[in-house]
Specification:
6 helices
Length: about 120
């Protein structure tokens, strides 16, 4: 029985692109992270959450940055969460998001070629 890694786990165990080529399996495992960040709205959301005071943001803090409906913003946040780039926690009626900084660092190291 083979254990499948999440995209975040896959990127964490890969060597930088400049050190050695990715295998087909590694590339397929990492692609969902890049695809999640490949949308301009999601990339901005990721940036807004990661740079927000305290490193987390409520959906209510993010809606005003876009001319999109709250359900559309929530949909994009869900994609980032499912990719493993955001954690979420519910507090009362609000959902708060926190950037998975280790996943972002690992993704940066993979692309930027920094050793681990």
């Amino acid at each position: 029985m083979s254990l499948e890694l999440t995209p975040v786990q896959t990127v964490a165990c890969c060597s930088p692109l400049s050190r050695e080529p990715l295998s087909e399996t590694e590339a397929e495992g990492i692609a969902p992270l890049l695809k999640a960040l490949g949308d301009p709205v999601r990339l901005r959301l990721m940036s807004l959450v990661a740079s927000h005071e305290g490193g987390e943001a409520c959906v209510c803090d993010l809606n005003d940055a876009f001319e999109l409906s709250q359900p559309t913003i929530s949909h994009h946040l869900k994609i980032l969460h499912e990719a493993g780039l955001l954690e979420r926690s519910k507090r009362g009626v609000w959902v708060y998001y926190r950037a998975q900084t280790d996943a972002l660092k690992d993704l940066g190291a993979l692309i930027g070629g920094q050793g681990r």
